[in-house]
Amino acid sequence: MKFFIDTANLSEIREAATLGIIDGCTTNPTLLSKEKGSYKEILAEICSIIEGPVSAEVVSLEAEGMLKEGKELCKIADNIIIKVPCIREGIKALGMFKREGIQTNATLCFSANQGLVVAKAGATYVSPFVGRIDDVGNPGMDLVREIVQIYHNYAYPTQVIVSSVRHPQHVYESALSGADVATIPFKVLEQLIKHPLTDAGMKSFLADWEKVQKK
Ligand code: E4P
What pTM does this model have? Predict the structure, then answer.
């Protein structure tokens, strides 16, 4: 399973990249609004740090506007891919981007039918938002499992990015479901590595090694 980093914060992205396990990055208007500086400069910098796909989202509500905006975003760097919302005009835009040879990420996906429709429209990726579904009292990971099954049934090439990840459980459940990608906030990435038994084990090994040195 690929790991994308779900942030527009350059310090977090630089730090995460040093681990050597990050395959891409996802941003959205909210994440970019938290950072200082122009969004184009931030995206350009992210693209220089991360070799894989970097999602940048369009905000137009009409397909033609989405296409125009997406083409502008693509000028920032070769690894920009365009996030398009799962709305009626977004479905039209996905086909337009495909015909232009531009990769897309169908975002704000909350149902298996949306997942099916965006695959038929030619989306490169789909992003089911598991955390936001959990927030309203439904199991978000069920949606991921359904979309993975549907894509498997019909051999759709659209890749599933588990999005709105809130905790480590979402990550290993993504891997168990067969999802292609999990896009992970920096805090959760750190939580994946940390384990209290590893820390306790390290503490006692280091203390015992001190004793070995004194012999
Ligand atoms: C990623 O592509 C999404 O925009 C992001 O995961 C949304 O996360 P949130 O639901 O925590 O805002």
Answer: 0.97
